[in-house]
User: What shape does this take?
Amino acid sequence: MPSMTSSPHIQIEITNSHANGNGAPKQWLVQKFGGTSIGKFIENITGTIVQSYLPTNRVVVVCSARSSETKSLGTTNRLLKAAASALVPGSTEYLETIQDIRLDHIEAAQKHISNPDILKKVQDEINQDCDRLRSFLEAAQIIEEISPRSKDTIMAVGEKLSCRIVAGLLEDRGVETEFVNLENVIEAVFDVNCLDQNFYDYLSRVFAAAVSKCGNRVPVVTGFFGSVPGSLLTSIGRGYTDLAAALIAVGLDAEELQIWKEVDGIFTADPRKVRDARLLNIITPEEASELTYYGSE
Assistant: This one.
């Protein structure tokens, strides 16, 4: 599990070739970045981490919804708040929340993207996504209902906005990218009770097909995917972005899957909350599983 503070030792050289320096075909490498990492370390991600692997690999970037400081204050939780507010008759709080999300992402784009044409494109995309969300929630308020599938549609906005900024900043730094939206990539019909290995095998194939269409460009992929029977949140839960990255890696037969975090490794507790939390130098799969069961990420 690499961390944002890690310093890759590969010389940075931007290239879009599918062959490495020895002429051998490049292997796929999938990098997943969490929302807090994108909120705090987007310069490291786009300026060093992604680019350092381009000379040797075909890189796929998978993004979670952006968090400025902590997950509790992140885009996903604000979207859930907006959805709840829209169901309150006469409430306009959801409009304020959408505007906060809009301004947060536009300010991030303005802070990091220098090229005015790229910046305008990203700002226009952010505004379009937020305008669609506003219209969707206005309709939900009228009918006084948000179904699980509708909640998925609302949640998907977070990953889209995050990808817009990451793709724009990579473009700003000379890396050709392509935004890949997995929101409606599932076309086959599955029963909610049949989310078995066949279902996940199918997902890995369709995810890989969507990514492969990008050609020489670096795919910047939404960690949110659908439409999942019973809704993504209900059937999969909040860890869907890591799952998406893993399924993409499987479908592409990737050389490596990297889950990047803003901490240096696995700790005995959350180091942001527990002052004497210790970094674990060695941990078994069973111990890692137990930590995850009790809430560790």
